[in-house]
Amino acid sequence: MSGLVLKLGPHERVLINGAVIENGDKRSKLAIMTPNANILRLRDAIHPEEANTPVRRVCYIAQLVLSGDADPAEMRHQLLRGIEQLSQVLTDPDSRALLAQASAAVLEEQHYQTLKALRSLLPREERLFAAGRA
Predict the structure, then answer these.
(1) Shortest CA distance to 85 belongs to which of 115, 55, 56, 114?
(2) What's the CA gap between 82 and 19, in Å, rounded?
(3) What is the signed CA dihedral for 89, 51, 71, 67, rounded to 10 degrees?
């Protein structure tokens, strides 16, 4: 079996190409066979009021594209600009690699990969903010 396999918990919701799908009472697996399907686990979704840090704001833009709520062509420039701004602050090699992955994914219109790379930066951003408060 090829494609993306989603493992869903009971009553977990996922957005697939704009449709919200809710799992039943038991754990299950879904095989997504359509290439480039737009998929977002709703438990991972960033709500508008949570887009309150630089990384979260760029993630939110990517999420809007992935969910079909924003036109990819219109958001491309915003995503690339946001990634560029993050690269000026997050200068460690690991962050740079993730930002390069996100940038390449935007250019290749791989929206899920864009969001995945950007979400990997959230723990780093949280640590930086925590260190700044200490």
Answers:
(1) 55
(2) 28
(3) 120
- What residues contact 1, with CB distance under 8 A and at least 6 apart? 31
Q: Is 111 exposed, middle or buried, given 0-12, 13-18 or 19+ CB atoms closer than 10 A?
A: buried
Backbone phi, then psi, for 53, in 5-degree steps? -135, 165
pLDDT digits 0-9 by tens, 59-91: 999 999 988 889 999 999 999 999 999 999 999
Hey, CA dihedral for 78, 81, 86, 92, is it positive or negative? Answer: positive
Q: pTM for the full model? A: 0.86
Sign of the torsion formed by the C-alpha atoms of 18, 101, 83 and 131: positive
Q: Is 13 helix (H, G, I), strand (E, B) or coil?
A: strand
Ranges of each domain in the chain: 4-43, 47-133
